[in-house]
């Protein structure tokens, strides 16, 4: 039986104008108010089939950027992957050569032989100059939106304050590479640059666009560079309010596929809480994958990008509610 939740209901945006940019680098737009304030970077299309962020940035550019202070950079990242987008096989346009969100190390950025590493190297100066990063993504499977905050306290605090989604994920990243949100200043405990990654829901769900708009609104408001009344009117018509107390989930371990022989015991969608320790949730090359503790939450389980070495699910523990 066909799962209607997997229907892809978002059209690919026409980015003919947006890909021109205004700094000499395709897909990069930079605005400077001329007044002192933080530099905010908002990124979309880190993966070529994740369209919600591209729609949000397109709408913001069409409306016009009117900063109160500081600087704003809007970046359409993996345009070559996006250019291969086919709604009937959208997973294939996630990347061309390598996952763009696993290349953020000196070694990989110096590799000029891959589409994604060349593009990341070209975008690197704009990533390094940012005091705030909002990296907009969507998910392989239908599931509630989540904010991924990394492990540093300042990012977790910003994620809670932003209240973009019901769930905030604390995790160190992936074994197969470094994410942009963990690169450079964003991953340094001694720095003050902040980064949030938001997963806005399923790739093809129209609601993911509304979530992307709201996330942009929140990071602009919290950074203080652009008030909500300067945003597109239809964004404000959503009447979306911040979540007062997101549920904080700390990832204790990723489950990484050893081979192509990985199966789940159930069609997990994400955010399921498995009550009993030792429950088998899947088989990894024939070996059972068991929950390591009671009340274990499954974060973004998916086999849609299955290859050896890829994270197929993250296991997380719920943190106590803060009462401050």
Brief digest:
The chain is an alpha/beta fold and 324 residues long.
How would you characterize the overall build of this protein?
- This protein is of the alpha/beta class and 324 residues long.
- The chain folds into two domains: 4-236, Aminopeptidase (3-Layer(aba) Sandwich); 249-318, OB fold (Dihydrolipoamide Acetyltransferase, E2P) (Beta Barrel), CATH 2.40.50.
- It is 20% helix and 24% strand.
- It contains seven helices and 14 strands.
- The protein has helices spanning 52-63, 79-82, 106-109, 115-128, 153-162, 207-223, 233-236; strands spanning 28-32, 39-44, 71-76, 132-139, 146-148, 167-170, 194-202, 247-256, 262-264, 273-274, 280-284, 287-290, 296-299, 311-318.
- The protein has an eleven-stranded mixed sheet with strand order 1-3-2-4-7-5-6-8-14-13-10, sandwiched between helices. A three-stranded antiparallel sheet has the order 9-11-12, with no helix packed on it.
- Helix 1 crosses helix 6 (207-223).
- The model has no long low-confidence stretch (mean pLDDT 95).
How many domains? The number is 2
N- to C-terminal distance = 47 Å
Shape: globular
Task: Give the strand content.
Answer: 15-25%
Give the helix level as a range of percent: 10-25%
The low-pLDDT segments are: none
Over the alpha carbons, how many angstroms does the gyration radius reach? 19 Å
The number of strands is: 14
The CATH superfamily name of the largest domain is Zn peptidases
Q: Work out the helix count.
A: 7
How are helices and strands ordered from N to C?
A: EEHEHHHEEHEEHHEEEEEEE
Biggest beta sheet summary: 11 strands, mixed
Category from helices, strands and their pairing:
alpha/beta
CATH top level assignment of the largest domain:
Alpha Beta
- Biggest sheet strand order reads 1-3-2-4-7-5-6-8-14-13-10
